[in-house]
Amino acid sequence: MALAFDEFGRPFVIIKEQDQKVRLRGLDAQKANIASGMAVSRILRTSLGPKGMDKMLQSPDGDVTITNDGATILEKMDVDNQIAKLLVELSRSQDYEIGDGTTGVVVLAGALLEQSQKLLERGIHPIRVAEGYETASRIAVDHLEKISQKFDFGVNNIEPLVRTCMTTLSSKIVNRCKRSLAEIAVKAVMAVADLERRDVNLDLIKVEGKVGGKLEDTELIHGILVDKEMSHPQMPKQIEDAKIAILTCPFEPPKPKTKHKVDIDTVEKFQTLRKQEQQYFDVMVQKCKDVGATLVICQWGFDDEANHLLMHRNLPAVRWVGGVELELIAIATGGRIVPRFQELTPEKLGKAGLVREKAFGTTKDRMLYVEHCANSRAVTIFIRGGNKMIIEETKRSIHDALCVARNLIRNNSIVYGGGSAEISCSVCVEAAADKHPGVEQYAIRAFADALDSVPMALAENSGLQPIETLSSVKSQQIKENNHYCGIDCNDAGTNDMREQNVFETLIGKQQQIFLATQVVKMILKIDDVISPTDY
Amino acid sequence: MVERIFKDEATEEKGERARLASLIGGMAIADLVKTTLGPKGMDKILQSTGRGHEVTVTNDGATILKSLHIDNPAAKILVDISKVQDDEVGDGTTSVVVLAGELLREAEKLLATKIHPMTIIAGFRMAAECARNALLQKAVDNKENEVMQRYSKSDLMKIAMTTLSSKILSQDKEYFAKLAVDAVMRLKGSTNLESIQIIKKPGGSLKDSFLDEGFILDKKIGVGQPKRIENAKILVANTAMDTDKVKIYGARVRVDSMAKVAEIEAAEKEKMKEKVDKIIAHGINCFVNRQLIYNFPEELFANAGILAIEHADFDGIERLALVTGGEIASTFDNPESVKLGHCKLIEEIMIGEDKLIHFSGVEMGQACTIVLRGASRHVLDEAERSLHDALCVLSQTVNDSRVLLGGGWPEMVMAKEVDELARVTPGKKSHAIEAFSRALIAIPTIIADNAGLDSAELVAQLRAEHHKEGCTAGIDVISGSIGDMAERGISEAFKVKQAVLLSATEAAEMILRVDEIITCAPHCLHLLFQGFVLCKRMSEEHEEQEQVLFLDEGKKKKLKKEAEKAQKRGVCYISRVPPGMDHVKLRQLISQYGEIQRIYLVPQNSSSIDRVNDNNKSRKRGGGSGTKAQAYSEGWVEFASKSNAKRVANLLNGEQIGGKKRSQFYYDHWNIKYLSKFKWDNLTEEIAYKKAIREQKLAIEISAAKRERDFYLKKVDQSRALSSIEERMKKKQKVQQESGGEFSVAPQKPPVCRQFPQKKPIAERERSKPQLSKDVLAGVKDLSPAYADRMEEAPWLIPSL
C-alpha cells in the first residue's frame, strides 16, 4: 500500500482502513485484469459458431438453463470479478443494441486482451496500445463498409431475410427446424414492420411458449394469445366477429382510495345499501351490453354475482389479464383501454374476427386466441417443445432472429459470415499497419491477429485444424481477391460464403468491433486496483 | 495464476468432466426407473420426509421422479421430460426416461472413441427422423375403416389393456380397460379428463370398482330433507348462503342500542329469507351450492321440501352443471331465464360405510364417475394413477386414432429401419445412427430382463423375425416367448410412442451439447462456506508446511498471521435461539460486547444434509412479505479473541436479553456457553468430510467405468486384428491356389470353441452316474478342466490373480 509521509517523516493514512485493503498497481494490475477478461472469453469461446457447444447453468435456486447464447450465459454466471463484469456488460449491450453476435463480441474482446498482453510485456505503453487499437478498429469498420453488399427485399420477397435469420439460428439448438423458425421470425417482423420509416417495434411481437408437442408445432399467430380462460366454465368457447370491451376496472363494488366508512345504524339504511349493491352489478353489466360489446376483457377479478350476471346476459368475459397483454390486445383489435364503466362508448371497442379457447394436453390448460384482428400489426409467436429448457432456449433464439431481421429492415447492408468478414478485415488492417509510423504499428498488427481468432475459434469448434484452415482461407482471399471466403463449418464443401448463404448484418459486425475495442481500451487504461481483502 | 471470476461458492466444470457428470447423472436416473418398465416391472416405495413420513407405492415413472430431490442438472432434464410426457400424453413416462438414458449410455461409448458430440447429435437426429418415419408408415389407422366404430373401440380396448398390464390393475385389466374405454367414449372426443370423476373408497376389492353413468357427489343429505327425489329439477349455484354480507367497501354496522342490533339482525334474516324464497321460486326441488349453507336457510329449504347440498367443491359443481345441463347461478332475480338442471332420480346410496348422493338418469352423459374400491389407501392411490394413465392415453387416441402393436414391436421396427440407414450413411455419423438403434433395442431387452426372461436370446430371436417383411412379432412377457402381437391384441397408441421417441432424443441431444457446467452459489450458507474455505486454507497451511516454503515471502507471512489470528479466536455455543432471531439481529446484539467473526445458526426441523434443500424451499414458498421467518434451533458465534468470548459467555448466560422494551426479545434469556478448545473448523469438519467422500466416490466410479470401457475396447481391437489376420490368410490361400495350382493347405488355426460347463439333463445323468465320481476325483487331484479353461480366457475373473 502506498504510504505518504508528512514533513516530519511520519506516515499517514490516505485510504480508509488502509491496512485491510489489497492493492495492485501498474503492469501487475493490467495483467491481472487481462487474465480475468481472458478467462471469461475462454468460457464463451467454445460456444461460437454453428458447431459450438452449450453451457449448462445452475441458478442459486437449482433451476437449470442450457444455452449457447453469450448474453444469457454471462448473465446467469454469477460473476464476481469486476473486469469479468465489464465483459458481461459488453455482451449485454450488444444484446440490447443488435440482439445477435453476443458471443462473438466477447471472444473478440478476449483476443484483443490476449494480444495486448504480449505488447505490454514488450514494454509498449498501454495508452499507445489503446490508441493503436482505436485506429485499427476504424480501419476495420471502414473496410467492412466497403465489402458489404446491399440486398433487396420486399413484402413479397422475403427470401434474403429468411436466409440471414437461418444463419443466426444455425448456431442454436433449434437448428433442426431453422428454416421454419426463420420464416416465422421474418413473417412476424414483416407483419409489424413500418417499411417507410424503416423501423420495427419488437414489442408488438409477443413470444409465448407452452411445454408439450414438438418444435415443429411452433406457429405464428396473426393475433394475440393470452394464457387465460373464460371466467365462467359455461361461457361460449368461440366468438366470431367479437366486439371487445377492454377494461381496467373490476366488476366489483367501488373501493375508493381515501379512507372512509359507511355506517349502518338503522334497518332502512341496511336495506337501501343492499339494493344499491345489487343495482351496482346490474348497471355495470348493462353498460357493457349497451355499447354492444360481445366480449369483455378485464384486468381485474370479478365478483361471483357479476360473473353469473355476465354469463346470464350472454356476455363472455376474461378476467385477470396482465397489463402488457391488455395493451397488446388493444393495439391488435384497435380498441381503447377503458378505465371506468362510464367512459365506455361503442368507438372504444376493439374488433376481432375470431376469439376462441383452445385446450392442450391431458391437463386443464387452456389458452385464448384472439385472431383476425382489425389491426393485424400485433402478432404472437407460439412456441411448443419437449421441455421447459428447450422452450426457453427457443425463445432466446427467436429473439435473436427477430433482432437480425429488424436490423436488416433498418439497414439492408450485409456482410458474409463464417469468419470471412473478420479475415478480410484482418488482411486489410495488417496492410494498413505497415504504412503507419510510430509505435501504434505494433498495436494495429496485434489487432489484425486478434481478428483472426474469431475464424480460428470457428474452425476449432467445427473440428477442423484451426491454424491450417485459417492460413489456407487467408491465402485464398488474398490470391483470388475474394472477400467472401470463410470457414466451412458445416462441411458443405465450399469456402465461398456466398454459395453457403451465410450472412450477417453489417451493423452487427461493426458494433461488435466498436464495442470490443471500447471495452478493451477501458480495461487497458486501468493501472490501479484497490479492493478489500477476502478476510 | 488466473484470477477467480466467479463468486466463492460457484463451481465450474469443463469439457470431459462436465460431460461425464451430466452423462452419469442422466444414466443414474434412467437406471433408477429402469426396473419399473414393462408388465413385469417392479414397484418402488417412496417415503416422504414431510410430516408423517407418508408412503407411496408406485411404478409410475413420473410419480417416482417427481418426488425425488435431485441435484444433478442433467438428471433434472430427464425428470422434466417425464413430467411433460405425463402432462401431454399421460403414459410412457418411464419409457421416455429409459430411452434417453440408453441414448446417453451409447453416446458415452462413442465419446470414448473420440467422436465429437456434434457428430453424434447429427447422427441421432437423422436416426430419430428415420425412426419416426418408420413408425408413421407402420401405424394403422382404423378410423377410416367401414366398420369404424366397432373396430376403433376394439383398438381402444387393446390399448387400454396394454397400458394397464404394467400397472397394479393388471389382474383385472380386462374389466378396467372396459371401464376406461366406456368413460372415454362418453367424452365424445374432448380431452378434458376433469369431467371424469374418480372417487376412491377403501374397502372391498379392486373388482368391486364400477363406472357410474350418472354422477356421484361425496356429500350427505341434510337432516329432515327428502332422501329420494324423482324427476329432480336442480339449481346449481355459487353464492354465499351464510349471512349475506354487504359488499360495499367500508360498510360497517354501528348502533347505539341492543334493540337496534336485534332489528338489524332481523333485517339480515329477512334478507336471507328473501333470497331463499327467490331460489324456491325457480320451482326446484334440489339446490346444490358451492359454498356453505347455514342452519337457517337449510331449515327453510327443508320446510319447502327441497334438498339442499352445501359445500360441493368447484370441480364437483362444474361437473354437476355439465351433467345435468344447468348453469351455475349466482343471482336469482330472473327465475324464468336461469337454466335448471334435470335428472330422473336423486338418491342416497351407500358405498362401503359412506353415504353418497347419486344423480341418475341425467340428460347429458358427458361426465361420469368411476368409483374405485380397494383394500388400502395405497392400493387405491396407485389404482387411480394407473387408471389416469389409461384414460389419458385413450382420450389422446380418440383424437389421433393411429395405433401400433406393443411388446417391443415398434422399437424393433424402428431399430431395423435405423440400422438400414446406418448402412447407407457415409461418414462418422453412421456410428451414432447405429448406436441409436442399439438404444432402441435396449427397451425390449429391459422389458424382458424385468420379467426374468433370457433377454439376449429373446431379442436375438425377435431381430431375426423382424427381417421378414410385415412381421408382427413382439415379446410376450406372460408366456415368455416371441409371439404375434396382432393376435394377442397388444396395441399401443402412436402418439405415445412418437412423443417418447422425440422427447428422449431431444433431451439426449440437449445433454450432449453441454460442455461446461456452471453452478451458482446457493443463496444461504454463505457464512458457513466462507468459514469452510478459510479453514481449509488454514489446515493446508498447518499440514503442508513444505508447500508454504514455495510461496513467496509476503504471502507466507500473511498466511501465518491469519493462522495466528485463528488461534486466538474463541467459539461460543448458543443452545436456544429465540423465535424471530436471525444472524443479522444476533450479530447486532452481541457485537456490542466484543468483535465477532462468524455466526452459524442451525435451521429448525432439518437435518444437516437437507439444509440446503430446505432453505431453498422455504425461500421459494415465501417470496413476498409476511411469511414466517426461519426458526433456528441452536447456533455458534465466533469471537475475535478467546478471552473476550469467555467473558461474554459468563456475562450474558442466564441474563435477560433486554434492550428496548418494545423489542421482540426483551423477555428472552441468553443461553450461551463458551466452548473451550473448540475451533470453527470442528463445525465445518462434517461438511468437508462428506464432500471429500463424495469426491472420492465419484472418482472411483469414473475410474471403474473407464477401466471397463478400456478393457472392452482392447478386446474389440484384438478381435478385429484376429479377423483381419484370418482374412489375409484366406486371401493368400486363394492367390496360391490360382497361381501355383499346387494344392497345399496352409496350417490354419482351428476356430476357438469355448465350452461352458453345463448341467446335463436328469435322464442322462442317471445313466452316467458312475462316471461322475471319476470326474470329482480328477477335480480333487488337479484343477478341473473347465476351471482351467475359464482361467485362460478370463483371468480378471479371479481376484487373486
TrEMBL record, chain A:
Q: Where in the cell is it found?
A: Cytoplasm
Question: Superkingdom of the source?
Answer: Eukaryota
- Annotated InterPro entries: Chap_CCT_epsi (IPR012718), Chaperone_TCP-1 (IPR017998), Chaperonin_TCP-1_CS (IPR002194), Cpn60/GroEL/TCP-1 (IPR002423), GroEL-like_apical_dom_sf (IPR027409), GROEL-like_equatorial_sf (IPR027413), TCP-1-like_intermed_sf (IPR027410), TCP-1_chaperonin (IPR053374)
Keywords, A to Z?
A: ATP-binding, Chaperone, Cytoplasm, Nucleotide-binding
Q: Does the keyword Repeat apply?
A: no
- Entry-linked Pfam families: Cpn60_TCP1
Q: So what does this one do?
A: Molecular chaperone; assists the folding of proteins upon ATP hydrolysis. Known to play a role, in vitro, in the folding of actin and tubulin.
Concerning NCBIfam families, the annotation shows: chap_CCT_epsi, thermosome_alpha, thermosome_beta
Could you tell me which PANTHER family the record lists for this protein? CHAPERONIN (PTHR11353)
- Family from the record: Belongs to the TCP-1 chaperonin family.
Q: Any idea what this protein is called?
A: T-complex protein 1 subunit epsilon
Upper lineage is:
Eukaryota, Viridiplantae, Streptophyta, Embryophyta, Tracheophyta
TrEMBL record, chain B:
Q: What does this protein do?
A: Molecular chaperone; assists the folding of proteins upon ATP hydrolysis. Known to play a role, in vitro, in the folding of actin and tubulin.
Q: Which organism's genome codes for this protein?
A: Salix suchowensis
Q: Where is this region: Disordered?
A: 610-629, 731-775
Annotated compartments: Cytoplasm; Nucleus, Nucleolus
Instruction: Tell me the protein family, please.
Output: Belongs to the ESF2/ABP1 family.
Protein name, as recorded: CCT-beta
**One matching Pfam family:** Cpn60_TCP1
Domain RRM span(s) in chain numbering: 570-661
Q: Does the keyword Disulfide bond apply?
A: no
Q: Which domain of life is it from?
A: Eukaryota
Q: Which keywords, in A-to-Z order, does the entry hold?
A: ATP-binding, Chaperone, Cytoplasm, Nucleotide-binding, RNA-binding
Q: Does the keyword Protein biosynthesis apply?
A: no
Instruction: List, alphabetically, the PANTHER family matched.
Output: CHAPERONIN
Q: Which InterPro entries match?
A: ABT1/ESF2_RRM, Chap_CCT_beta, Chaperone_TCP-1, Chaperonin_TCP-1_CS, Cpn60/GroEL/TCP-1, GroEL-like_apical_dom_sf, GROEL-like_equatorial_sf, Nucleotide-bd_a/b_plait_sf
